[in-house]
Amino acid sequence: MIRIAAIAAAAYLAAAAPAAAQDIEVERQPIELKNLEKGKQALDPARGYIFLSAPGRLNAMFLKTPDADDIAAFEIEWREEYEKAQAKYEKRMASYKSKAAKGRPTGKKPEEVSEETFSIGQLETRLLFALGPQYVFDKGKDASGEKYYQYLHEVDPGTYTYYGPVMVDPSAGAFGSCYCMGSFKFEVKAGAITSLGDFLTESWADDAAMKKTSVFFEADPERVQKPTDWSVPASLDALPSVKADLRAAGKINNFYRVTIMRSPPIPGVLRYERDVVIDVKAEAEAETAKTGEAGTAQEEISPTLQ
């Protein structure tokens, strides 16, 4: 039995292009309010959901962190496809040898199929999915007259990293920017709607941070910093909603060969030391744990000092 690590390594070394959106087998789908109201769709407590909003249409790509089930399914498919390729190779090789023994033209010698080099592509590209700009959950104007576009996507429960504003057109390729040099991730649990609110609009980031983050950013004097609106519409009260617990995510491969960028520093979540991603929450948690251990140690030794 080939170890999973070996299979994954073979896949990562492959130069195959990422799978097109329609080829990805992982079950996920956009949810639309009109379909919920007509009973064509329903919120499934066994599934997870990502909600986000913006003042206009947007496109966002997310990468699911492979879990044990994802890796196991990939391993099974790899083995099945490898055995098919091996059988074809053996058949072609037998024909090649037979022709050579009879002095007939053999053509090019069949290329050997080996476990070390055989690939069915990259596991990660199967776990990427794009949200928007079509299939809006709901759109309209709020009480102040401002436009809003809301998106809701059903996904497998797990951990998701924001890959960036990337859109894939099967006939024309990928467009947008990959947050390859630093991003954020969050957990999506079954039976809950995980809200990113309007966080992806990045209105919370200051101009200086944006300039340091991306050479493509141009200062907008009319841009107003504001807190993120994490709220979820009442039409989704069939399942509980939770604010996404953002965590720093490290560097990501540029699978689609698009423009490379990175997320602006996120207060309390993510910062940078030159090109190194720093997990601010992890630092704070480590400091809290250290303080707690010191306090416990003091409590343990204090009785002997009395």
Annotation field: number of helices: 6
- Kindly state the mean pLDDT as a whole number? 84
Number of strands: 16
User: How much of the polypeptide forms β-strand, as a percent range?
Assistant: 25-35%
- Can you summarize the main beta sheet? 6 strands, mixed
Sequence stretches where pLDDT stays below 50 over 5 or more residues? 1-26, 301-306
Quaternary state reads single chain
Give the terminus-to-terminus CA distance. Answer: 63 Å
Kindly give the count of domains. 2
Which value, in Å, is the CA radius of gyration?
Answer: 25 Å
Structural category is: alpha+beta
Helix content range? 25-40%
- Based on CA inertia axes, which overall geometry fits? globular
**What is the helix/strand order?**
HEHEEHHEEEEEEEEHEEEEEH
Provide structural commentary.
By secondary structure, this protein is α+β, with helices and mostly antiparallel strands. 28% of the residues lie in helices and 25% in strands. It has 2 domains: 1-16 and 69-122; 32-65 and 127-267, no CATH class. Strand 15 (270-273) and strand 16 form a beta hairpin. The longest helix is centred in the first third of the chain and has 34 residues, at 68-101. It is globular and about 85 Å long.
Describe the protein's topology.
Layout (H helix, E strand, L loop, with lengths): L3 H10 L15 E3 L1 H5 L10 E7 L5 E5 L3 H34 L21 H4 L1 E4 L6 E4 L5 E9 L2 E7 L1 E4 L3 E6 L4 E6 L3 E6 L9 H7 L27 E3 L3 E3 L9 E2 L9 E4 L2 E4 H26 L1
Parallel strand pairs: 2-11, 9-14, 11-12
Antiparallel strand pairs: 1-6, 2-6, 3-4, 3-7, 5-6, 7-10, 8-9, 10-13, 15-16
